[in-house]
Amino acid sequence: VRLGYGLSGNQNIPNYRYMTLFSPRPSLGSTILENDGMFGNPNLKWEVQKQFNTGLDISLLNSKLNLVFDYFLINNDDLLMERTKAGSSGYLRELANVGAMENKGIEISVNANLVETRDFSWGGGLTFSSARNKITRLYDGVETVWKLGGYSNNEIQREGNLFVGESINNIYVYKFDRIVQESDMDYVNSLDLGNRIVKPGDILPEDRDHNGIINDKDRYVVGNTDPDFYGGIHTTLAYKGLSLNVVTTYSVGADRISYLYETLMDNSGLLSTHEDMKNRWTPENTNTNIPRAYNLGDWGLLGGRYGVGETDWAVQDASFFRISTMTLAYNFPTTLINKAKIGSLRVYVTGNNLFTFTKYKGFDPEGGDWYPTSKMYVVGLNLSF
């Protein structure tokens, strides 16, 4: 039985961030002092982590079956995070202690030697983890800290906002209402959409507060990127000199926005696009949830139609099951290789990232969309004399 409690501090604060820094730049015979956009905060403190954990290790059947259970509860106070500042202040951001967060979860691992004879053995194990985090307090008693940016400092981002009671990894967007049909236009025209233009075939967000106005107050937390649970399964089978080792990983319940998929869906169809666009809305194909193709005249940076990523239409299930590593190896019998003055000889072939089973439409449900995860094969030989 294990039991622990402790405090630790996060001193990972960039140097001199309690001060507003300026850099000199020569210009026309004089020197101009420029700031780097970060406002100094003389009230900075270390982030403090209070961690409680308890665990149980069990070994059964002469160590053929081993189990490990862990529970942890972590409270972080004085969270260090960059805060967005209003552009009118002359600065872009500020490093500050913004609040407190709770993180708790369980971890379970099981390892077993299932079969063990002279010529054949089979063993394996699995891991299971589940963790939850939530913001428990924000500075000055506020309920929300917005992450602003994008094309203007007043644009609320989809990710990175902080809400009391919600995960730090939340996704904040509109709720998808419908793909607009011709018969919906009377309702659409009755709404105050600001500078948005919505036509048949476009996405319409839901007016969640039913006030006839669709604005930021209709956005809400639709999910988060934290999986419900995740882990891995591994097994090894061996018969005489031949062995097979398989390692798999899994993750269930995480949400993710695929920026790649959005880019492929938010275009006119004249550029590279996703095959889902084959089923896009047209006047002849109205029974679909894929919005119409359009050109840049229908959509702009400061107006136009709603993009697919502005609603939970774009939030995808990032659950997956992956065969991460598979190794097939053969150890030559010593009675055979000793005649050649060889101590040991092993040949093997290993495959990494072989198969991923997922509904996610981006490059990789785990690694994201910046670059596809590579598949790799290795053929090797281990030789000793």
Structure write-up:
By secondary structure, the protein is mainly β. The protein is built from three helices and 27 strands. The strands form nine sheets. The chain has a ten-stranded antiparallel beta sheet with strand order 1-5-6-9-10-19-20-25-26-27, with no helix packed on it. Strands 4-8-7 form a three-stranded mixed beta sheet, with no helix packed on it. A two-stranded antiparallel ribbon has the order 2-3.
Numbering strands along the chain, what is their spatial order in the largest sheet?
1-5-6-9-10-19-20-25-26-27
* H/E series: EEEEEEEEEEEEEEEEHEEEEEHEEEEHEE
Low-confidence stretches at least 5 residues in length (pLDDT < 50)?
298-302
Largest sheet descriptor? 10 strands, antiparallel
Number of strands: 27
Radius of gyration: 28 Å
Q: In percent, how helical is the residue content? A: under 10%
How far from one another are the termini?
Answer: 46 Å
Structural class, please?
mainly beta
Question: Treating each run of at least 4 consecutive H or I residues as one helix, how many helices?
Answer: 3
Assembly state here?
A: single chain
Arithmetic mean of pLDDT: 90
Work out the strand percent: over 45%
Key terms:
385 residues, ten-stranded antiparallel sheet, three-stranded mixed sheet, 49% strand
